[in-house]
Design brief:
- The chain is 32% helix and 20% strand.
- With 302 residues, it is of the alpha+beta class.
- The chain folds into 3 domains: 40 residues, no CATH class; 115 residues, ATP-grasp fold, B domain (D-amino Acid Aminotransferase, Chain A, domain 1, 2-Layer Sandwich), CATH 3.30.470; 80 residues, Rossmann fold.
- Strands 3, 4, 5, 6, 7 and 8 form a 6-stranded antiparallel β-sheet that branches. Strands 1-2 form a two-stranded antiparallel sheet. Strands 9-10 form a two-stranded antiparallel sheet.
- β1 and β2 form a beta hairpin.
- The protein is globular.
- The relative contact order is 0.08.
- InterPro entries: Citrate-bd (IPR032263), Citrate_synth_N (IPR056749), Succinyl-CoA_synth-like (IPR016102).
- GO terms for molecular function: ATP binding; ATP citrate synthase activity.
Length: 302
């Protein structure tokens, strides 16, 4: 599922051949709907770096190593680390330089300091919980007064879905065609509006489509600071749960499985964080509707 060093015509043909087709990945069948097209950047391996930002209980860790790419190896063992404690100021340029860029050529340090500072600011502002760039390419300069060019060739990131009620408008603005540089149809404006852009989608895992009910609960969850989760495991199952609390919901599901009824577990879900009466009603109504939908009652009951 990877095409390298192709022109635009080859890219289009490759995508058309696979779009909407069912494929098998690690014993899971699914349909390809999204494709990522990036410019091909030839570069020597010594210009590849690695950076990772992830949230932990005590704050955010920034990990950096001067050896990136496919041979990055054990990142936890080799990366330099900088912890930004909760409720503390962003790291200074000096901190970044002294704690993360020890093994970076002097000519590239200023560019990387600026990049890491801005990257962390975006990480915090948009409520990321994890962000990894590998490789982060910093090309060599020809002269001392030239600024190194930076490319991020592969990136993986996770957003905090529970922050959607707060950060959702920012996510939408970031995805608007005016701000990505990808214009659709007759769109040519570069103005930014507070209500522009498509909402962020949190898709189901590859090979699985969200049911209408799951999508409705996900939309309800996005509008509140509370937590409302629903996954339909077996629509014909006899055991339906409606548990308050994320930890309790896991304990209940584990107990059901341990007693030998995993095959009868119809759903996984939880509500917590003090949802309103209306939100709780809609959540309960959805589960009861699913539970009683089968017109033929199960002989052993629900």
């Amino acid at each position: 599922l990877l095409l390298l060093n192709a022109d635009w015509q080859q890219v289009k043909e490759w995508i058309i051949e696979r779009a909407g087709k069912e494929i098998k990945v690690d014993n899971v069948n699914g349909v390809l709907k999204s494709f990522l097209v990036e410019p091909f950047i030839p570069h020597p391996s010594h210009t590849e770096y690695y950076i990772n930002i992830n949230s932990v209980r005590d704050g955010d860790y920034i990990l950096f190593t001067h050896e990136g790419g496919i041979e990055v190896g054990d990142v936890d063992a080799k990366a330099l680390k900088l912890l930004v404690p909760v409720d503390q100021d962003y790291p200074s340029s000096q901190e970044i330089k002294e704690k993360l860029l020890v093994n970076v050529p002097e000519a590239k340090k200023d560019a990387l300091i600026h990049f890491i500072s801005r990257l962390y600011a975006v990480f915090v502002d948009l409520h990321f919980t994890y962000l990894e760039i590998n490789p982060l390419v910093v090309l060599d300069t020809v002269s001392d007064d030239e600024t190194p060019v930076i490319y991020y060739l592969d990136l993986a990131a996770k957003l905090d879905q529970t922050a959607e009620f707060e950060a959702g408008p920012k996510w939408a603005i970031a995805r608007a065609s005016q701000n990505t540089g990808i214009f659709v149809g007759h769109e040519t404006t570069t103005k930014t509006h507070a209500d522009q852009g498509p909402p962020m989608e949190f898709p189901a895992p590859f090979g699985r489509e969200l049911t209408k009910e799951e999508a409705n609960i996900q939309e309800l969850d996005a509008k509140t600071g509370a937590s409302l989760k629903l996954t339909v495991l077996n629509k014909d199952g006899r055991i339906w749960t409606m548990v308050a609390g994320g930890g309790a919901s896991v304990v209940y599901s584990d107990a059901i499985a341990a007693l030998g009824f995993a095959h009868e577990l119809a759903n996984y879900g939880e509500y917590s964080g003090a949802p309103t009466e209306t939100q709780t009603y809609e959540y309960a109504k959805t589960i009861l509707d699913l539970m009683t939908r089968n017109p033929i009652p199960h002989p052993e009951g629900k």
